[in-house]
Amino acid sequence: MQHEPDTLPRPATLDEVKGWFHNIDQVLFDWFLSRQRERGQQGDLLELGVYLGKSAVFMGQYLEDGQAFTVCDLFDSPASDTANDKEMNKSYSTLTRAAFEANYQAFHDELPRVVQGPSHVITSLVEPDSCRFVHVDASHLYEHVHGDIAAARELLGEDGIVVLDDFRAEHCPGVAAATWGAVATTGLKPLCITATKFYGTWGSFEPVRGELGAMLAGRDDFWHGAEEVAGHSMIRIDGRRARVPAQPTSRYVAEAEAAPAATPAPAPSKASPKRRLKSLLGR
Ligand SMILES: C[S@@+](CC[C@H](N)C(=O)[O-])C[C@H]1O[C@@H](n2cnc3c(N)ncnc32)[C@H](O)[C@@H]1O
Fold first, then answer.
1. Domain containing residue 179
2. For position 126, which CATH number holds?
């Protein structure tokens, strides 16, 4: 699916943006980003690996005046090593930057700052300690994720939150190795995990962990339990039944609602071909 300018996507809902961003992770992104806003926590947003923009569109809702949102993706540029190139050709061969931008602009007036290139350039473009929330979802190969986690650590300010995608999937063991390696060796504190994402901080743990536990205890649409990991009480969440939080509004929603309902196709006739022919001939 290469997108020509006149066939760019016009999503009426976030559901129509292709990507990977489960309800439970939307609930948690909403909770962490809203908590930061309520506390007046300053800092920018960063996403490494945007694909067609599903999680970026969602994150863009939490941008405050004077804050920056930077996204970084190779899009259709070549990767800097063969393994990453192979990964790109296998999983994201039809991706274009224009399609991402069209999706994003369906929901937001202004694009984020878009860095088209390998995620390892990010520390030369974003100020150290300037971010409050970093979503790491670019290459799923060990060397890249290891570097992206180190970048997140450098770019996050005090009490910033890092989210690591696909930290336990069978098809990308390098993400698991990089994630738990960071917990074991860099002081990354695990706050919670869902089926696909790890949430952690290098900042203070107890206050955010306590409030997260209280929020989860008030929800009846998913299971959670705590487990001691590397000296921290980490929360495991089974969010398969999680309800979606409030969704961003698309500029195309009115268009979709105004479109005339498609005329239903006539029901197929149950008559035999011979009887149908007779009725057509009026016999
Ligand atoms: C799993 S997708 C991101 C999904 C997205 N966050 C969403 O919500 O749907 C991974 C993205 O990382 C990008 N990518 C792969 N290797 C990269 C690298 N070395 N640097 C930057 N982006 C990369 C791919 O082009 C792809 O768009």
1. 5-280
2. 3.40.50.150
Distance 119 CA to ligand 1 centre (A): 9
Separation of CA 92 and ligand 1 centre (Å): 8
Work out how many domains the chain is built from and give that number: 1
Best CA proximity match to 149, nearest among 185, 114, 115: 185
Most confident of the ranges 3-17, 78-92, 145-159: 145-159
Task: Give per-residue pLDDT as tens, 95-121.
Answer: 999 999 999 999 999 999 999 999 999
Cα of 96 from ligand 1 centre, angstroms: 12
Q: Is the CB of 54 under 6 A from ligand 1?
A: yes
Q: Whose CA is nearest to atom 27 of ligand 1?
A: 51
Between the CA of 138 and the centroid of ligand 1 the distance, in Å, is 4
SS3 of 61, please?
A: coil
Spatial separation of the C-alpha atoms in residues 264 and 112, rounded to whole Å = 41
Per-residue pLDDT tens digits for 153-179: 999 999 999 999 999 999 999 999 999
Q: Which residue lies with its CA nearest to atom 20 of ligand 1?
A: 118
Whole-angstrom distance, CA of residue 49 vs CA of residue 9: 19
Q: What is this structure's pTM?
A: 0.90
